[in-house]
Design goal:
The complex is a heterodimer of chains A (307) and B (295). With 307 residues, chain A is mainly alpha-helical. Chain A is 72% helix and 1% strand. In chain A, 51% of the residues are buried. In chain B, helix 1 runs antiparallel to helix 10 and helix 3 crosses helix 8. Chain B has eleven helices and two strands; from the N terminus they run H-H-H-H-E-E-H-H-H-H-H-H-H. Chain B has one domain: ABC transporter involved in vitamin B12 uptake, BtuC (Orthogonal Bundle). The chains are: A mainly alpha (307), B mainly alpha (295).
Chain lengths: 307, 295
C-alpha cells in the first residue's frame, strides 16, 4: 500500500513537472498529448477487456461519438466546451448501454462481431451522411475551448487539460475497481458461472462496465475534437480500435496501472519509427510479437488469467 | 428489364458469396480449432494474389501454373506465420494474446507487400472469357458463371477431402476435441500446420477469383478480407463448414443486392445492420450450437 502511494505521488509530480522539461519542444508535447488521449481510451478499454472480459472492436466508435458530439455542439449550436464534454461522455454512455444490452444473450466472439459491426456502421454513416457529419471531410473549425475563463490554446494548455481528464479517469476507475463493483468484475472475469452462482448479477455488471468504459472514450473523443479542431471519419477507424486493444494487451489486461506502459511503448514506437516509414509497420509488428512471445501477460500484467 | 437485372445481380451475389466462402474456410477452421482470431489471414491471401499478379503480368506465366505457385506460397506463408507467431502461445493464459501476435504478423506481411507492390490498386488480368450466354432466356455473362463453378468445385473437393481423406478426418477430429485426438495418436502440430496451409491455399484461390472478376487488386483488400472472413465465420456459426457456406452467401448476396437496389455508399452499413439483426435473433450464428457453461 505504501509502495503504491509513493508510485502515485511520483506520477503526480512527473505529470506536473514534465511540461517544464518539454516546454521548448511542441513536438514532444504533442506526442505526450497523444499518449494522454490514448491512455484515457485504453483505461476505459482495460475495464471492458481486462475486467469484464468483453472484447470490443468498436471502441473507436465511442471515441468518435464523443468527438462528433463535441464538434457539432460547439460549431453549430454554440455550446461551451464543458457542457459539450459532459454531453459527449453521456452520449457514449447511452450508446454503450444500448450496445451492452445484448451481452445478456450474445456472448463471446459473437458479441465481438456486434461491436465490430457497430464501429463500422458508425464510421460508414459519418462518411455517408454529409449533411450532418460533413462526410469524409469531417467537421472543421471547432472553436478554442474555455474552461472557467481559461482559454486553452497552446500545446501546454492542452497538456494540462489532458492531464486533468486523465487524472479524473484514473482516479474514478481506481475507486471503481477497488470497490465492491471491482471485486465483482474480477469474479466475473475469472469465472462467470461461479460468480453468478455466488449471487452476482452478471448481466448487469457486464452492461455497466461496457457503459462506463464507453463513457471515458466519449470524453477522450471530446478532447480530441477541441485539440485537433477537426474531426474526420478516419480518426475513428477499425484500425484505431485495434491499436487500443494492442496497447491494453501489450501493457497487461486487468490492471489499470499496466495500461500506461502499453500505451507509452506503442505510441513511442509509432513516433520513433516515423522517419523510416517504409519499415514502420514491420518493426511495430515485430515488437508486438516479440513482447508477447516473451511476456504473454503483457509488460506489467500479473493476474492469472483463465480463458 | 428489372427481372433480368435482378437475375444478374443475384448471380454475381452468389459468385461473390462462393468466393467469400473460399476465403473464410481457412479462417473458420483455425477459429473452430484453436479459438484464434487469425488477423493475418487477409494479408496472407492478398500476398498470394499479388504474387499471382506479378507472375501473370511480369513473367507472363501460364495462368494455371501461376495460380498453383501463388496458392502454394500463400499456404506456406500461412503455416510459417503459425510456426513463428502462434505456436508458442497456444498454451498462453488468454487467447486474446495470440490475437495480438496475429495482428503483429499481419503488419509485418502488409509492410512487405506494400514495399513490393505499393498500396495502389493494380489491374488484375481477366482469366475467363467475357462473352455472353443465354440461361433460361436471360442474357448472362460467362465469366461470373465460370468463377462460380470454380469456387463451388473447390468447396466440394475440400469437403470431400475432409470427409473421406485420412488427414481430412484427422482435421475434423482435432477441431472437435484436441486433447482426445492427441491421445489417439494424431500429431496435433502437423495437423495444425496442414490446416493453416490449406486455409492459405483456399484463401489465395478465393483472392485470385475475386480479383479477376473485378480486374483489380490492392493491398487494402487484405484487411477487408480478414473482416469479411471473421463476419462470415461468426454469422454462419464458428467452425461449422456448412455455416461457412451460409455465412459467405448471406454476405455476398446482401452486399450486391443492397448496393444495386438501395445505395452503394450505405452498402457496408446495411450489411452490418443485417448482421446485427441476425445476431440479436440467433446469438450463436445460423448453424452454431449453444455451448454449455461448465463449472
Amino acid at each position: 500500500m505504501k509502495k503504491r502511494l509513493i508510485a502515485h505521488a511520483a506520477a503526480v509530480i512527473t505529470a506536473i513537472g514534465l511540461p517544464f522539461v518539454l516546454v521548448d519542444d511542441p513536438y514532444l508535447l504533442s506526442i505526450t498529448n497523444f499518449i494522454i488521449i490514448y491512455s484515457i481510451l485504453c483505461l476505459g478499454l482495460n475495464l471492458i477487456l481486462g475486467y469484464a472480459g468483453l472484447l470490443s472492436l468498436g471502441h473507436a466508435a465511442f471515441y468518435g461519438l464523443g468527438g462528433y458530439a463535441t464538434a457539432i455542439l460547439m460549431t453549430r449550436y454554440g455550446f461551451a466546451f464543458l457542457p459539450s464534454l459532459v454531453i459527449s461522455g453521456f452520449l457514449a454512455l447511452v450508446f454503450g448501454f444500448i450496445l451492452g444490452l445484448p451481452t445478456r444473450k450474445v456472448r463471446g466472439d459473437y458479441f465481438c462481431l456486434l461491436t465490430l459491426a457497430f464501429g463500422e456502421i458508425f464510421r460508414l454513416v459519418t462518411q455517408a451522411w454529409i449533411g450532418f457529419t460533413g462526410g469524409a471531410m469531417g467537421i472543421v473549425g471547432i472553436p478554442i475551448p474555455q474552461v472557467f475563463g481559461w482559454e486553452i490554446k497552446t500545446e501546454l494548455d492542452f497538456y494540462f487539460l489532458g492531464i486533468a481528464l486523465l487524472g479524473f479517469t484514473y482516479v474514478t476507475l481506481l475507486m471503481l475497481t477497488e470497490s465492491k463493483f471491482g471485486r465483482a468484475f474480477v469474479a466475473i472475469r475469472e469465472d462467470e458461472l461461479a460468480a453468478s452462482v455466488m449471487g452476482i448479477n452478471t448481466p448487469i455488471y457486464k452492461i455497466l462496465t461496457f457503459c462506463i468504459g464507453s463513457f471515458y472514450a466519449g470524453l477522450a473523443g471530446s478532447y480530441l475534437a477541441v485539440y485537433q479542431t477537426t474531426v474526420t471519419p478516419s480518426n475513428f477507424r477499425l484500425e484505431e480500435s485495434c491499436l487500443m486493444i494492442i496497447m491494453v494487451i501489450v501493457g497487461g489486461m486487468g490492471r489499470l496501472e499496466a495500461t500506461f506502459p502499453g500505451v507509452a511503448m506503442m505510441a513511442i514506437a509509432i513516433e520513433f519509427f516515423r522517419p523510416i516509414a517504409e519499415y514502420r509497420l514491420l518493426l511495430i509488428g515485430m515488437i508486438m510479437i516479440l513482447v508477447l512471445l516473451f511476456r504473454p501477460q503483457g509488460l506489467l500484467g500479473a493476474s492469472a488469467f483463465k480463458d | 428489364m428489372p427481372t433480368s437485372m435482378f437475375f444478374d445481380v443475384l448471380i454475381v451475389g452468389i459468385m461473390v458469396g462462393a468466393i467469400y466462402t473460399l476465403v473464410t474456410i481457412g479462417y473458420s477452421m483455425v477459429y473452430g480449432m484453436l479459438k484464434l482470431m487469425n488477423f493475418a489471414h487477409g494479408d496472407v491471401y492478398i500476398f498470394g494474389t499479388l504474387l499471382c499478379y506479378t507472375l501473370l503480368t511480369k513473367y507472363q506465366l501460364n495462368p494455371l501454373l501461376a495460380i498453383l505457385l501463388a496458392a502454394l506460397s500463400g499456404g506456406t506463408l500461412a503455416s510459417l506465420v503459425e510456426f513463428f507467431a502462434y505456436r508458442r502461445l497456444r498454451a498462453a493464459q488468454h487467447r486474446m494474446i495470440s490475437m495480438i501476435t496475429a495482428l503483429g504478423a499481419a503488419y509485418v506481411i502488409q509492410n512487405n507487400s506494400e514495399r513490393t507492390w505499393s498500396s495502389q490498386v493494380l489491374p488484375f488480368p481477366s482469366l475467363f472469357p467475357a462473352h455472353q450466354v443465354y440461361v433460361f432466356g436471360h442474357e448472362v455473362s460467362v465469366a461470373p458463371l465460370i468463377t462460380l463453378t470454380v469456387a463451388v468445385l473447390f468447396i466440394i473437393v475440400f469437403n470431400l477431402f475432409l470427409k473421406r481423406n485420412k488427414i481430412g478426418k484427422a482435421i475434423l477430429c482435432v477441431s472437435q476435441d484436441m486433447p482426445t485426438s492427441s491421445l489417439m495418436g494424431i500429431p496435433i502440430n502437423k495437423i495444425i500446420t496442414v490446416v493453416y496451409f490449406l486455409g492459405g491455399v483456399l484463401g489465395v484461390i478465393g483472392g485470385i477469383l475475386y480479383s479477376t472478376s473485378y480486374n483489380a487488386i490492392s493491398l487494402g483488400m487484405g484487411f477487408r478480407g480478414t473482416i469479411i472472413a471473421f463476419t462470415a465465420a461468426v454469422i454462419g456459426g464458428i467452425g461449422s463448414m456448412s455455416g461457412t457456406l451460409i455465412g459467405g452467401m448471406i454476405l455476398g448476396i446482401t452486399e450486391n443486392l443492397v448496393s444495386v437496389y438501395i445505395s452503394s455508399s450505405y452498402r457496408d452499413s446495411i450489411t452490418f445492420l443485417i448482421l446485427i439483426i441476425i445476431l440479436l435473433f440467433k446469438p450463436t450464428g445460423v448453424m452454431g450450437s449453444v455451448e454449455q457453461d461448465k463449472l
